[in-house]
UniProtKB/TrEMBL annotation:
InterPro entries named among the record's database cross-references: Glyas_Bleomycin-R_OHBP_Dase (IPR029068), Glyas_Fos-R_dOase_dom (IPR004360), GlyoxalaseI/FosfomycinResist (IPR050383), VOC_core (IPR037523)
Domain VOC: 11-162
Top-rank lineage group of the source organism: Bacteria
Protein's UniProt name: VOC family protein
Transmembrane segments: none
SUPFAM superfamilies in UniProt: Glyoxalase/Bleomycin resistance protein/Dihydroxybiphenyl dioxygenase
Amino acid sequence: MADNTEFELRGINHLALVCSDMKQTVDFYSGVLGMPLIKTIELPMGWGQHFFFDCGGGNALAFFWFPDAPEGVPGVSAPKNLPDRGELLSAVGSMNHIALDVAPDRIEEYRDKLIAKGVDVGVILNHDDSEFGIAPAMGEGVFVRSIYFKDPDGILVEFAAWTRDLGLPEDVRHEPRTAADRTV
């Protein structure tokens, strides 16, 4: 990976999301995914709760529960379905998905384990630089393999396994698009 010459960042401290049911969220992230619950906070003045889960590598995933939070809107606040089922779109400013890093040699095992726990999991995707970005099988051009599934609130979660180091000149070759390129 490339070095940051501006700030010595050490990874994601935590990503904070919003859930509709904290107990259901704890059951999923701790019970199904095995992520230890490491901190719970009762917010002042009845504002809600803020819970933190250890997601490895010194990183945390956090959830707010607000008693008056509006409902999520599929296709706006998160994709409507899994990417291998033709859905990827979410709104500007939304959090599209959480990608948790896993070892490349465990991706098949983890998919089977999630299915055994009753989680609806997509097929293993071999991301490459081909026209559609997906290779039919693991090969030389694949840079990450992944599976996608949703949590109880419809938050898209990915188990992602890097298959090689990134940052080569061919990895950074596209010009960034601007607001003027949007079709909306």
